[in-house]
């Protein structure tokens, strides 16, 4: 079955970087865009950006431009999200999610990874 | 950027109640609207895509409607497992995806 498995929880100090991985299985990794979404404690969902695993092309939300880098390794069907210059308000659960596109052109996220908690604290 | 506004932010309901959640887009998004359910400590789960299409495996008590700027998620008869937070998402602008702020459905 289609599955996204993310790396484990991280604790980082302010100013550091974190790299979260998302391993895909059960489908052709290069055939679907991968998105990253985060959720701060008690807050809603915030879209961060996407990567095209086929070309490596990326598109980031303006809020994260200059701090986020999304990459992939097609040999192991894994996408990565690296966030730099971490601040306390980057403490959140980070999710990867596969974009599914219908023939009619409509699109949505399914499935999602299980989430990775990143805690930023001195 | 397209903004998504959900109402209400929270609601209390009883098992068996009919529940309606509204999502409004800041500009027309045709039918490019999805709904997700999220339970505490879990990843969001797709319920409805393209405004009104039920995702495989999702109970038929869930339905979606609307187009343009106004959309609705309806739960026809609330079940104990439906207590969760619900999010709408626009997929019209794929350069700047956006979610609504969420609606928490609680037990009355």
Helical fraction of chain B equals: under 10%
Largest sheet of chain A: 7 strands, mixed
Low-confidence stretches of chain B: none
- Give a quick account of the main beta sheet of chain B: strands, pairing sense, barrel closure: 7 strands, mixed
Helix/strand-derived category of chain A reads: mainly beta
Strand % of chain A is: over 45%
Which residues of chain A form runs of ≥5 with pLDDT under 50?
none
Name the structural class of chain B: mainly beta
**What level of helicity do the residues of chain A show?**
under 10%
**How widely separated are the two ends of chain A?**
40 Å
Mean pLDDT of chain B: 96
Order of helices and strands of chain B: EEEEEEEEEEE
How far apart are the first and last residues' alpha carbons of chain B, in Å?
A: 36 Å
User: What radius of gyration of chain B results from the CA coordinates?
Assistant: 13 Å
How much beta of chain B, percentage-wise?
A: over 45%
Question: How many whole angstroms does the radius of gyration of chain A measure?
Answer: 14 Å
Instruction: State the shape of chain A.
Output: globular
Shape estimate of chain B: globular
SSE sequence of chain A, one letter per element: EEEEEEEEEEE
Oligomer: heterodimer
* Biggest chain-to-chain interface with counts: A-B, 25 and 24 residues
């Amino acid at each position: 079955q289609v599955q996204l498995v993310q790396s484990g929880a991280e604790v980082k100090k302010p100013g550091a970087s974190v790299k979260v991985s998302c391993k895909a299985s059960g489908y052709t990794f290069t055939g679907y865009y991968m998105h990253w979404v985060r959720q701060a404690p008690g807050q809603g969902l915030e879209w961060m950006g996407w990567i095209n695993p086929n070309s490596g092309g990326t598109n980031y939300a303006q809020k994260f431009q200059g701090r986020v880098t999304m990459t992939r390794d097609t040999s192991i069907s894994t996408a990565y999200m690296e966030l730099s210059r971490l601040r306390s308000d980057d403490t959140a659960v980070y999710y990867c999610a596969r974009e599914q596109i219908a023939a009619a052109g409509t699109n949505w996220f399914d499935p999602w990874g299980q989430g990775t908690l990143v805690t930023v604290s001195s | 950027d397209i903004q998504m506004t959900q109402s209400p932010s929270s609601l209390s309901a009883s098992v068996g109640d009919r529940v309606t959640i509204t999502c409004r887009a800041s500009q027309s998004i045709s039918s490019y609207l999805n709904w997700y359910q999220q339970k505490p400590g879990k990843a969001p789960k797709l319920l409805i895509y393209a405004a009104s299409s039920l995702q495989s495996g999702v109970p038929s008590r869930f339905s979606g409607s609307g187009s343009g700027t106004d959309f609705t998620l309806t739960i026809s008869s609330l079940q104990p497992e439906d207590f969760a937070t619900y999010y709408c998402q626009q997929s019209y602008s794929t350069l700047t995806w956006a979610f609504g702020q969420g609606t928490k459905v609680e037990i009355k």
